[in-house]
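Incident review: delayed structure delivery

Summary: a single-chain prediction request sat in the queue longer than the usual turnaround. Root cause was a stuck worker, restarted by the on-call engineer. No data loss occurred. The affected request and its eventual output are reproduced below so the record is complete for anyone auditing the incident later.

Affected input:
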Amino acid sequence: MRFFDESVSIEGAYLWRYSADLAHREGEGEASRTTAWVQPPGTPSVGMAILDVYRWTGDSEYLDAARRTAQALVRGQLMSGGWDYRIEFDPKDRRRYAYRVDHPHGDASGLRNTTTLDDDTTQSALRFLMQVDQALEFRDEAIHEAARYALDRLLAAQYPGGAWPQRFEAPSDPAKHPVVKANYPASWPREYPGADYRGYYTLNDNTLADMIATMFEAWDVYGDDRYRAAAEKGGDFLILAQMPDPQPAWAQQYNARMQPAWARKFEPASITGGESQGALAILLDLYRRTGEERFLTPIPRAVAYLKDSQLPKGGSPAFTS
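Output delivered after worker restart:
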């Protein structure tokens, strides 16, 4: 652990891969000695492993290391509330980002300030901060404040219907996002339109599942009923987002009209097998956590549809238009 903490990390933060001599370092791409990665299996993943060792052993050395990793994440928190995929620690590189600790008066116009919920990035960072906060009995003011600030911004970013975007810089605008049920458009582009999908209601890459799990964990740690309400609201979105017959399942992402929409070139507007199965798992978990039977209502129709959609050799199609 000392080798990881003192030699591998940059100020307590980590990447994905290192060569044996530590000369070559990578996150999702090549990285410098002053760059860390938030996106799992980066900094929060390593931090949770260290925190788990502390819980198993009671050795305060591991808690100190986990605290150092949490403090690194505090240094990478954006003014928008969450985290980018990476954190820069070199003073020159940091100038491009709206890091909260570097801009205490809130003047960071023109700087990179995009919170990403893609690939469990912000969610994993926040869950780790909350767990360290709890282990420290909420006595580290900077860690505690960063976690609560992130939660406040995530609540503000949740759409009225219960979904979250893939990424955001500011709170959602309710006037632009009416609460409506999923519906089929009269027509849709068969070729990639190149639209900005980052603000769409997103299930892709487990974004919604990770947000709901994070909100339930926040409720467990802090006992604030706003977080449970946000998790349940996310489940209510899934109920709204189930498509009408003849395809009563879910899409990867939806536009503000609650219609399946394109994201990247390989993510067309369609019903998707993976996200639909993920939606069913979320609904079951919501029922287990809350006992609310409304979360079971969409399941029978979706399961019947997925069974009917099985391919000849088993499995389900990735996309169904």
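Verification: The CA atoms of residues 242 and 249 lie 5 Å apart.
Action items: add queue-age alerting; document worker restart procedure.
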